Amino acid sequence: MNGTSPGRMRFLATAFSILVMFVSASVDAANPVRRTWTIEGVTREALVAVPSNATTVAAPVVFAFHHHGDSMYGASGLYHYHTSWPEAIVVYMQGLKTPGQFIDKNGNLSGWQRFKGDQGDRDLKLFDAVLASLGQDYKVDTLRTYSAGFSNGGNFTYLLWAERGDVFAAMAPCAGVANGFTQKLTPKPLLHIASTNDGIESYALQKATFDVVKSINQCSATGTTWENVGTLFPSVSNNPVITWVTNIGHAFPGQAPELIVKFFKTQSKPVAPVSGPVIWLTKNGSSTSRQPQITWKPVAGAVRYDLWVNDMTNYVGQIIRDQNITTTTYTPPSPLKMGTYHMWVRGVNAVGVPGLWSERLELKITLVPQLIEPLATTDGPRPVFRWNAVPGAMVYQIWISPGTINTIPFVRDDTLTTVAYTPTVNFPPGDYRWWIRARAIKNGFETIGPWTPAQTFSVNAAP
After folding, report:
1. H/E/C letters for each residue in 232-277?
2. Among 191, 266, 274, 371, which lies 20 to 30 A Cα-Cα from 98?
3. Based on the domain organization, do 253 and 351 belong to the same domain?
């Protein structure tokens, strides 16, 4: 409400005092709890009613805005959405002192900004902060967020539609208008409550607003009766408009909370399907990391991704199955063994409908052994060669060449199944170099790791 008569103000003040007494007695039972946020150094507040299971079960969210001169306590008693819809998170926001459009031009009463840029956008910033904190604290159903408000609160509901429209599934203003920004409204379901003899918010302006919405939503010219009080105008874009026109003046109908909740329960944001298969950014190939980072391109419509990994060397399916990846990058939480892995990923939309699987990605984990001995000079013509075991390796290859440059093998054995090798021939005194590499061969899949860096050693002559 942007202005009213002094006599009506006295009436509202008396009614509000009685209402505060009522709400004070019932707020604990209804369980709305006061919360605060600091916005650019100013403490803002709201009463928030939260279902007991909101941390585990996705809950719809209803934002409720009081009229000019009212408060969050008055709103919680007048609207009582939390009792009509106990499964929803309901936020009764508190406005700040705001100059009224018609009276209270000095801004002694609480209210909401009227257009973008008004009051430094303090109320849009508050909404952003509250919405973000709810998402951090609870499991919010992002497809079912709603706004409702009366008078100045209805105007702000329209402003939220214009400036934060993508957030909401449906709107329900009462005695509100979208004054000067209807061009910013996008198709969205609407329940608008108005009165033909509203002495504060002109019915003509309200009708002009919802007529614009009917055009935006591509509604039928004629409607059908809705809940014996309103008219429902179907929409070819699935964004119906319901107009509920009374003759009770500038007031909020007693039936409104239950019917607004009933309307909200029928509306949910449309969910786009996942647009297509995921495209890998990681290419088929090999990695010397046991926890390789794999990446893919984002897919339109996907809010999470489902990753499937098979160990082909050992024929073990779904060694990784992570269905809740919210980024386009994944690193295995546990190190992989040497071997060949096949991977697929797909996008999943907001209601859990998956898209197509990606093409198969083949990734070979190729690990390098660490040489243990000999590393320098050794006595005796048959030095023992040792190296560390590579997880997943089944066979090791050893290559030993004489000299520091010559790469012609003096010893080459490709069939070692242990991590030690004792030559079967004597090594003449001199300098040598040796290498090891690991292999994993099974079920028709062969993974061959890189050779270790060359290690030089010397065999001393017998005394």
Report:
1. EECECCCCCEEEEEECCCCCCCCCHHHHHHHHHHCCCCCCCCCCCC
2. 191
3. no
